[in-house]
Amino acid sequence: MKRLAAGPRVAASGLLLFSCLLVFGSAPAPAPSLAFPRDHGSHPAAAIEWWYYTGNLSDPAGHPFGFQLTFFRVGDFALAHGAWTDGARRAFEFQEKAHLILPGIAEFAEGRLEVSNEDWSASARDEVHRLRLRWEKRAVDLVLTAAKPPVLQGQKGFSRKGPGENEYSHYVSIPLLEVSGTLVEGGRRSALSGTAWFDHEWGPGALPAGAAGWDWFALQLDDRSELMLYRIRTKEGGATPFSSGVFVPPSGDPVPLRWDEVRFRATGEWRSPRSKGVYPSGWDIALPRLSLALRVEPLVADQELVTGRSTGVTYWEGACRVTGQRGGKPLTGKGYAELTGYSGRDVPGFTSR
Amino acid sequence: MIPALRLVVRALVTGPAKRHPLRLILPIAGVAIGVAAIAAIHHANRSVTESFRQAAASVAGRSDFTVTGPVGVPLEALRAFSFLWDVGSFAPAVTGVVVLQDGTGEAADLLGVDLAGDGAVRSWELISAAGAPPLLRRSGADTVFVSESFARRHALRPGSPMRVVAGGVPRTLDVGGLLRFSGVARAAGEDLVLTDLLTAQRILGRPGRADRVDVVLRPGVDRATVRRALAGRLPAGLRIEAPDRSATSADRMVRAFRFNLNALGSLTLLVGVFLIANAVSISVLRRRPEIATLKAVGASRSLIFAVFLVEGAAIGVAGTLLGEVGGVFLARAALRAIGGTISNIYLPTAKIAGGSFASPALLAGVVGLGAALLATIVPAAEATRVAPSPAMRAGSVEAVRRARLAPRALAALGALGLAGAASRLPPVDGFPFFGFAAVGLIVAALALGAPLFVRLSARASRRVLGPLFGAPGSLGAGFFGGALARNGIAVTALAMALGMTLAMIVTVASIRETVRVWVETTLRSDLWVKAAAGKSSGIVGDLPEDVVLFIGSLPGVAAVDPFRAREAAFEGRPYTLGSGDFRVVARIGGLPFLNGADPRATADRARREDAALISEPFARRFGVSSGGRVTIDTPRGPRSFAVAGVYRDYSNDRGTVMLDRELYLSVFGDRRVSSVAVLAAPGVDPAALRRSIVTAARGRYALSISTNRELRREVLRIFDRTFAVTRGLEAIAVAVAILGIANALLASAVERRRTFGLLRAIGASRQQIRGAVLVEAALTGLVATAASVAAGAAFAYLLLAVINPQSFGWTVSLDVPVGTLAGAAALVLAASILAGVFPGRLAAAVDPAAALAEE
Fold it and tell me: ipTM for the complex?
């Protein structure tokens, strides 16, 4: 999920959209083993499923950008969120889409990664993913090449979110994709390059009882290692035992992490003028076992999504800059953080459109 | 000039009007009734059109164009649309009908859309919802959304169950919330039941298809280019249409019906026009001495003309104002009647809401005033020709008239000739404009010829009436012939109204008898099964195919004939595409072919050769005959079929193409049925069989089953209800015309004061005077009735042989209900004699001394 995060985000929407939960309650038995590209494709038997791309890019002038492109499948419905962060202009913009799953409108292929919603799409052939994002005044086309193999989160991709029977998901990440592409904005075309993270998660979609939200981080460090962490917050502000993470070293097998070995502290906060939610903004994260100490700062303070039309969940998902050191050696990095449950507006707002 | 005009108006118009207000009341009433009828009918027609447009808009939303197909649009075909996301958006919709099982028996349009993503196309919003996020509710939940007013009417709340029949199956839907349409669709959206696309597909039994896809382009996008691009990508069989085509075709469907109403409304006004002409002409006659005097003192011709025009205009204005007021009330009644007919016969879910009254009021006002002025021109022109000196003496008018009878007779003959020619011309754009023109020409001939009839019949009758009734008889005949102009107009008005009434009686009786015979021949089955239709008498929604097997397997059923009918269009013109089991026709016959061909052999041949059978209205509308070919839009593109025969069909005027069910299924793959005809096994009582079908179907299908006899009765009941409006209008026209006779006689009585005085002075009794006036009234009625029989025969010919086939495409065999016609004529005759009673009393009351003193 995004840890739960994503998961939760979806899970949250799923929970809040309780009808979906009730309806799609029967979960598939945990798959014995995942195979690709088959399991990059859709799993219609799962109540909830999403494909999640986030990444940090820059143009030839060195201007930093962040993007998020998410496709959700909730029962018969297809939702999508797309966000664009312009670090130089300190601007953030997002759009959302919601449809019934219908040919030519919103589709999820089985057996391969090929998803679309209106004029947004993502597809993958072998290691190469292609993304298409359209806003009213901006067109982004990206080619992402997986630089590392997929990471199966949890137990071979079976990721528990809580103690309950339906509190799990199947969870696969690609921790590093090299990105090249183009941005067309205001009639100007510029080249883009950078790195991205990919998550794919599917399951019954239940959020553990008592969870208030989650914080999720996917950080890509310039020594070609990646760190993913998520904390499922209790209503009291602590972390549930199902909070966890993974460290992907430059080479070799991923290292699963427990939350209790993470030292985690927010360094600032940001108050949303829209939702009035107060989000943490900036973190110190340390993992003594890995001799890793990092400071994470948002690229732009306001990267909040108020998704009234689709999931109805208000959350913060944004590009971040990382500084710190590993084993005494300074390093930098980029990443994405996702924060839910801070606005008090997780309850879907689409009872009226 | 202006002071002079005022003076003259006072002398010729306002003065007399004050003295004899009664004389103005009748023409004013005539105009008022005509204006009211026109306003009401126009209002009803406009409301119908507007309601159709709004209903279409509530479905079409903001779309720039709409894609449909012969059996809808397969969902896979939506991929062809995906390029549109770069220039706009598109939204599929499923449309159907549900019948509420809540005592109202109303039918409502069901609209199934992509609830979450539909916002770009249709303007609706949810204003309250039950439970949680309705837009992402699982499609299997049978959740629907309705407007507040709909919920109120059917006692529904968010969360309450809504029992309906959908696709022939009883279902309980769940009201998920209330919704509101905005923009042009606001009113019509009130009657929609909105649901999720997949839910709609499921409850209507139409999986995998949408009925339409609406396309909305962004501002600035070139529509033509996109339309071409889309056309190039669409699979065969799908077509791009204007988004409101459904409104256009619904409107076309009822256009012939509305057109006839308009014609009848115009007839009423025409009678009013004659009454005005009558009144002004009487004014002119009465005031000849005054006119002559005014001329002698220097009044110009144009001044005289202007004065009478003012009088006509005053009558027109007063009548129009009154008529507008009456129109508002009449409009309500007309709307109810017309709306009822439309939802009963044409579109079960149509809700006809009253539209604005502004435009109908304007139209009726312009027509009413224009007609009044037009009616005034001829008598006013006559007034200008009054010579100063001879006219100062009474009685010289008719000499002028007599001199001009011959050219009038010639003109009348000319009008008749033109009418004959017009009756041979083909319809224009599917409508019998020339047929109606011929009706107008007959009316003109009647008006031109009337003075001639009056003179001839006065001459003839004097010889008979003198010996028969003595002095009153010959006096009355003399009065009748003497007032040539006045009585000519009265005769024309009555003959026209009565003639049209007689013609309508013949037409309606002929069509009814034709339909009755056709129903007897065609309805061979014992039972007729359709989806429960609530209060509508037509077919509402359809049935799943398994109902055919279900009924066929019940004991006591000998055979079942599944019938399918759906709307189709050829070159933008709607018709009905049907299918039935031709083997059943081949076995039991019952399809009457135009050329008398054997139904069994023809049906069998059509089945073997994959040929179509077409209805007579289709043959006429599209100019296809037996042995020709018809082209039908199929899911794989247009396909042509040979026509094996043309059969009589009075059930629909759009035209029907019938294919054998097997062929239809292979071409369209549409397995649902519209109705099922059932033959009972020998010895099985149909009523008992119906009971056992109903029992067996309980909980599984919601059926409405008619026995053969009920269906026959129902057909005629619908027929009679359709013509109820027509009958009401005829009655009004005749009543107005009879008032016209009373008016003419009243004017005579007033004008002939001197004559009556003289007659009394030389010894005539009051009874003799009264008798003479009654004889004149009877003669007027008699001549008008005789003329109306001639005119009525011509009208009936035009209606039955020209207008009806051209607008409905039906061959009707003539049926003359002599008794009804004689009754109507006798009634009118009696009424016209009655119309002489009051003027007769007035005439008899003349005091000889006073009248002579006036001399």
Answer: 0.83
